[in-house]
Amino acid sequence: MTNSTHALFDFIAYTARLREVERHNNATALRKESVAEHSWHLALVSWVLHTEFERESGLSLDLTRMLKLCLMHDLVEIDAGDPSAWETDPADPADPAGPAGKAQLEDGVAHDRFGALPAPLGPELLALWREYEEGATPEARLVRGVDRLNPALMRLLTGQGWSDVGADAAALDRLQLPRVTASETLTALYEEVRETAVARGLLPR
Fold first, then answer.
1. Would you say the pTM of this structure is higher than 0.90?
2. Cα dihedral sign for 120, 59, 141, 156?
3. Phi, psi of 19 (to 5 degrees)
4. Which of 147, 27, 34, 17 is nearest to 82 (CA)?
5. How far is it, in rounded angstroms, from Cα 154 to Cα 42?
6. Most CB contacts within 10 A, which of 33, 37, 115, 139?
7. Which distant-in-sequence residues (6+ apart) come within 8 Å of 202 by Cβ?
8. How far is CA 163 from CA 66, 86, 99, 199, in A?
């Protein structure tokens, strides 16, 4: 086995560990969702909605790149973990669990893990990760929107609700709308999730 092939094998083994990282929303009524499940569902939802995204935007969107963004954007959480969006203070730049601290930690992981891979894969992964983090393209902004919609959808589908984080509909809007408004379709889907959750008593008005 060449050094290059060995590095690729090690990375494949590393990515398998994404199954071990738990998210804060449920996958079923009995267990938490893994980040690997989340990433797979993001890819599927982005594929399903791709034509709608193109129709409403009038753009030709690169579906292959969107799927790659979905599948790889959370790989850094194998090392960095998955902090809850509800447990951080976005206004506190010194909070190590906040956006600034999380970004710094994940940037280091991305540089170490992706930067060590042979070309062309390593540079591609690092560029895709930065594209996603910065929302630098329409594809990245749409995937970021799907990424933000997904946990709300799962909290509705599993009946988990938002009592564990003390959120009401206004708080959920503040978290969701900055990203889901990248798309009319995502906004409409989010509003459906929110209103259904309120009607079922899972989310206080």
1. yes
2. negative
3. -65, -25
4. 34
5. 12
6. 139
7. 155, 156, 159, 160, 161, 162
8. 33, 12, 23, 15
Q: What is the reported pLDDT for 90? A: 47
Beta bridge partners of 26: 32
Token pair in block for residue 71: 């599948």
In this prediction, residue 1 carries a pLDDT of 80
Beta strands 22-26 and 32-34, pairing class: antiparallel
> Which long-range contacts (C-beta less than 8 Å, at least 24 apart) are formed by 185-190?
185/49, 185/52, 185/53, 185/56, 186/49, 186/142, 186/145, 186/146, 186/149, 189/149, 189/153, 190/149, 190/152
Each residue's pLDDT tens digit, 23-74: 999 999 999 999 999 999 999 999 999 999 999 999 999 999 999 999 999 9
Render pLDDT for 1-20 as a digit per residue (tens, 0 to 9): 888 899 999 999 999 999 99
> Which residue in the block uniquely carries the two structure tokens 């797979």?
40
Domains of the chain and any CATH numbers: 3-199 (1.10.3210.10)
Distance CA 165, CA 72 (A): 27
